[in-house]
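Onboarding guide, step 5: your first structure request.
Type a short instruction followed by the sequence, for example:

Predict the 3D structure of this protein.
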Amino acid sequence: MSRPESLFCSEIRNAYVLTDKEEIEFSVNKLREALVKVASKELKTNLSYQGGVRRDVNVYFSSKLDMWYFFGYQPSVKYIHAFGLGWPRSMVSAIVEVNFPVKGRSHRVAGAFIKDSAGITWVAHNGKIGGAKRGVGLKAFWRFYRGDCINLWEGGAKRRLALIGYLSSDELPVRIKRFVSMVNAIKSQAASSSAHLQLF
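The system replies with structure tokens like these:
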């Protein structure tokens, strides 16, 4: 996977991250409705993550997208959205999570809803990707990412976010699948590059 030497990110004036609790909840519900709409099956599985295993959780699978997804909620903290590719077997682990704070702005939570000057809401991600493999993380994401992105000014600092898709678009599930596939490729590329460097 290759990318240009520099990644150009748009700078949209008057765009901002949603921080209002009700606006975030509304946007999360809209996102989940779009994903449930394209799901072909709901089933139980076990979901592993860095902190342990969530047992007997409900996940959705979309045969159209060949992707599974899990919705969760950590009270007063964040809305959880875990994604993986292919059929969900008895134990799965997410390729990427697109989570949103319940309210406010948290840079520790990777997902964000961005509203532009035209009133359009976008689903975005700050590039913080987990992974047990060496070399996988925020720096690797932005090293290999080649999708759409935006620069936002927050508190006098410029922050970069990957744009996944337009919240109200019928193509949002497809755009999410594209993002998940891209993160999967980034993780493979980052792990491969790290392993190569360890040989020298």
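Each response can be followed by summary notes, for example: The mean pLDDT is 89.
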